[in-house]
Amino acid sequence: MYNQKSFELGSNRSCIRELFEYGCRRAAEVGRENVYDYSLGNPSVPAPAGVDQAIRDILADTSSVAIHGYTSAVGDLATRQAIADDLNDRYNTGVKPENLFITCGAAPGLTAVFRSLATENAELLAVAPFFPEYRPFAEGAGLKFRVVPADIPDFQIKLDALEAMLSENTAAIILNSPNNPSGVVYTRETLQKLAALLLRKAEQFGHPIYIVADEPYRELTYGGVETPFLPNIYPNTIVCYSYSKSLSLPGERIGYVYVPEAAADSKQLYAAIAGSSRVAGHVCAPSLLQKVIARCAKLRPDLEAYDRNRRTLYDALTSYGYEMAKPDGAFYLFIKAPGGDSQAFSDKAKEKDLLVVPGTDFGCPGYFRICYCVTPEMIEKSLPVFKALIEE
Ligand code: PLP
Q1: 244 lines ligand 1 (CB under 6 A)
Q2: Whole-prediction pTM value?
């Protein structure tokens, strides 16, 4: 006997992982240099030098075994203080350590928040295109998952469609900006309009509607584009942050949830997040990584390599006739599939050893995603394949 739903989730691998693993098998057959794998969002720039140095310094201190010891479940005070200081410096906002819960990355933060918002009949709205894992996270937490159609071709937020979907049951909206998969950054104007809409509707329904801001790409923007800090626009925002991308540490698992003091039921929500983490088996985030963040919270990624890849791909692909939203952030391009069917396009590309992810699981079947955390050499070699595919 086993849980059928869990069995299904474990058996149906994500399409991104499937493609990535296919790419590894194919590389063993034809050589890594002959496979153009744009599937997985694994950072390709190293962690900043300060991170490596901090790890060495922390490990060099052998005066205490506490380096590897348990911390409090909410996270070390020094870590939370360093994060609060960094956020306050940048956004002139009122973060205190007691508003921060240190997590093993964004994913467990999101699941804890979703579980904390899961009252009877509660719904979570996701704006397409969205990170596919939101669906199992939300449904596993007991929330009904509903998709707001994409705002094609700009991939901002279709506010009229969203408004029509808001109801007494809407607990929250999950937003991800800079966005995976579109690379789009929601503008301040979009967010201000959204905030006004949610305030109006919350008053009508007599309960708050939260925004869950999933922000692993917050610092990954290009050409001076800003990522507005949502709690300063809409206080009922719960931020789920991760250092996976900004400090290139995805396998180490470190991030946080921030519940602003001005959010409705802030203290209760924070306690519920701690409780939801507890039942999911959270004990504490990795102790070593917490100490690293206490020293490195102010470090920023070196974006030059990503930016170069972004510009090369955007310029070349648009010159061949591909259409996409302007990719101002994260490390993805979301491209309209020639012929309109991204699965068919992805299958055709796969025959030429070009791996691109169909948009279906992102809620946009007419688009495909490429992740440009790759080498410039791979990009150069893959461009003729993109050109041939659109010409066919
Ligand atoms: N949210 C988005 C939009 C992501 O792209 C990812 C990872 O790719 C995550 C959350 C999960 O991040 P983490 O590695 O911190 O769990």
Answers
A1: yes
A2: 0.96
